[in-house]
Amino acid sequence: MNTTITQPDPLTGEDLVKKVRELGNLSKEEKARACGYYTVTKNGIERVNMMKFLNALIDAEGIELDSSPNGQGRGGRSASYRISVQSNGNLLIGSAYTKKMGLQPGDEFEITLGRKHIHLRQLDEEELDSDF
Known about the structure:
Radius of gyration: 24 Å
Shape: elongated
Distance between the termini: 88 Å
C-alpha cells in the first residue's frame, strides 16, 4: 500500500514572520519545519531546508542583502568583508572598501592592535596638523 505524504506550502511574508514569533523558544530547525521548510525523502526521512527558510525570513523582514543595482561599475567580484594575510605578511584592503568609504589617496589611519583584532581609525585634519 503506497501512501502519499503531502507537504504544506512553506509560509512566506508576514505569515512567516508571525509564525516564527509564535514559536518562541523552539530551535531554528524546529521553526523552519513548522513553517513548512522541509522535504520528505523517498525513505520517509524529513530534511529541513534551512537556507530556504532563512532566505524567506530575510525577504519577509525586508532586509536587502544584495547590493542594489545602480548602474555603476562593470560587475565582477563584490566585497566579501574577509581578507587573508598574503605570503609577504601584508594585509591588503581592496578598493571596494576604500571606495565605499569615500577614501582618497593619502588619507591616514591610526592602527591599534588588540588580542585578536586590528582597529583602523581614520585621522581627521586636526589630528594630522597636531603631529607637526
